[in-house]
Specification:
GO molecular function: glycosyltransferase activity
Pfam family, one: Glycos_transf_2
Largest sheet: 9 strands, mixed
Oligomer: single chain
Helix content: 40-55%
Shape: globular
Number of domains: 2
Keywords: Glycosyltransferase, Transferase
Distance between the termini: 47 Å
Order of helices and strands: EHEHEHEEHEEHHEHHHEHHHH
Protein name: Glycosyltransferase
CATH class of the largest domain: Alpha Beta
EC number: 2.4.-.-
Number of helices: 13
C-alpha cells in the first residue's frame, strides 16, 4: 500500500534501439528501496524512432505497469537524444519532488532514489536544485569493473558551481536529478537551443548552476554500462587518433559556446546570473566569442584561464589562442 505522504518521483527515459538492456534498467527503477512507502515512481519514456523491438518492450512495460510506466508520443520523430530528453522535461507532470534522467542501458543501484532524497531534504528547495552522483563503470553485462567515473575522469572536487562548469564537464545525465523548480526552468529551453548545445545533460547542469544550486553525492549509484553501441562512453577507448585530435579542440569550443548559449537563454527569459563574479565569468566567454581580432581573442583567452580548474590550464589557453575554437558554432534562431 502506498503511503499518503509518499513523495512523487518522475523518471525521464529516452530510448533508441535499446531492446537488449531496457527491461533490466526499468526493473532496477521499479525495485528501488522505499518505493511505495517513502516515494512513488512514474516512468515516462519517449522513443526516438527505434527500428528494433524497443517499442514492443515499452508496450509490454506499460501493459504490466499501467499506473507507473507511460509512453510519451509526439510528432518529432527521430529528434536526437538532446531534443528527446528535452521533450520529456517539457511534457512530464509538474508535481514531482525530483525528476531523474535515465539512460536505457544502465542499471540503478537499489538505494539510488533513497540517497538522492536524503540529500535533497537538506537543500533550499525553493531554488532550482540539481543533484548528481558518482557512477560505477560497468561492463556490457552491467557488472562493476571496480572503477568509478570519478577515477576515470579524474574528478578533483565534488562541490561545483557555475564557474566550474563553465569550462568543465562533470555531470552525467544517467546520474542526474533535479527538482520541480529546475524542471520549470529547463522546460523554457527551446529545441533549437538544446540542439545547439554539446549535450542536454551538460547544458541542463550549466543552466541550473547559473540559476540555483548543484549538490554532489560521492556514492556511485548507477552502473554505467559500456558496450559497443554507447552514444557517449566513459573512457573514449573507441576513438581513433584523428578523433582524439579533433575532440581536443572541440572541447574548449563547446564549453565556451555553451556559456554563450546560456547567456542568450537567460536574456530571452529575462533572467540573470546571481552574482557579480558569475557575471564577470560569463563576460570573459562572451568576449572570446565576439572577438573581432586575434589580439582580442588572445586577451579573452588569458582571462578564461582563471576559470579553468583542470591540470595544465595553459594547454587549453594555447588552443584558444591558436585558433578560434568557437568558429563552428552558431547561435540558433528561436
Amino acid at each position: 500500500m502506498t503511503s499518503s505522504t509518499a513523495l512523487k518521483i518522475c523518471v525521464l527515459l529516452s530510448t533508441y534501439n535499446g531492446e537488449h538492456y531496457l527491461a533490466e534498467q526499468v526493473h532496477s527503477i521499479l525495485t528501488q528501496t522505499g518505493r511505495g512507502t517513502a516515494f512513488t515512481v512514474q516512468i515516462y519514456i519517449r522513443d526516438d524512432g527505434s527500428s528494433d523491438n524497443t517499442l514492443k518492450i515499452i508496450q509490454q512495460l506499460t501493459n504490466d505497469h499501467p499506473d507507473t510506466v507511460f509512453l510519451l508520443t509526439d510528432d518529432l520523430g527521430n529528434a536526437g537524444v538532446r531534443a528527446s530528453f528535452l521533450q520529456l522535461v517539457k511534457h512530464a507532470p509538474n508535481d514531482a519532488a525530483l525528476y531523474f534522467l535515465a539512460d536505457q542501458d544502465d542499471v540503478w543501484e537499489p538505494n539510488k532514489v533513497q540517497v538522492f532524497l536524503e540529500y535533497y531534504a537538506q537543500t533550499t528547495q525553493a531554488l532550482p536544485i540539481g543533484l548528481y552522483s558518482d557512477l560505477w563503470v560497468a561492463d556490457q553485462n552491467a557488472q562493476v569493473t571496480g572503477q568509478k567515473m570519478s577515477q576515470v575522469a579524474h574528478w578533483q572536487q565534488l562541490t561545483i558551481d557555475y564557474e566550474f562548469l563553465s569550462f568543465n564537464y562533470r555531470i552525467t545525465g544517467a546520474a542526474f536529478a533535479f527538482n520541480a523548480r529546475a524542471k520549470e526552468l529547463l522546460a523554457l529551453i527551446s529545441i533549437a537551443e538544446i540542439n545547439a548545445s554539446n549535450m542536454h545533460d551538460s547544458f541542463f547542469a550549466l543552466t541550473i548552476a547559473a540559476c540555483g544550486q548543484l549538490i554532489g553525492i560521492a556514492d556511485p549509484l548507477v552502473r554505467y554500462r559500456q558496450h559497443a553501441h554507447n552514444v557517449v562512453g566513459a573512457a573514449g577507448h573507441h576513438k581513433t587518433w584523428r578523433e582524439h585530435w579533433q575532440s581536443a579542440f572541440a572541447f574548449p569550443g563547446q564549453k565556451i559556446f555553451n556559456n554563450v548559449l546560456l547567456n542568450e537563454f537567460l536574456h530571452r527569459q529575462h533572467l540573470r546570473l546571481r552574482t557579480a563574479h558569475e557575471t564577470a565569468v560569463m563576460a570573459d566567454y562572451l568576449a572570446y566569442y565576439h572577438a573581432a581580432h586575434c589580439w582580442q581573442r588572445w586577451q579573452a583567452a588569458l582571462m578564461i584561464k582563471a576559470h579553468i580548474s583542470q591540470p595544465h590550464p595553459w594547454l587549453n589557453v594555447a588552443k584558444l589562442m591558436v585558433t578560434n575554437v568557437t568558429k563552428p558554432y552558431q547561435l540558433p534562431q528561436n
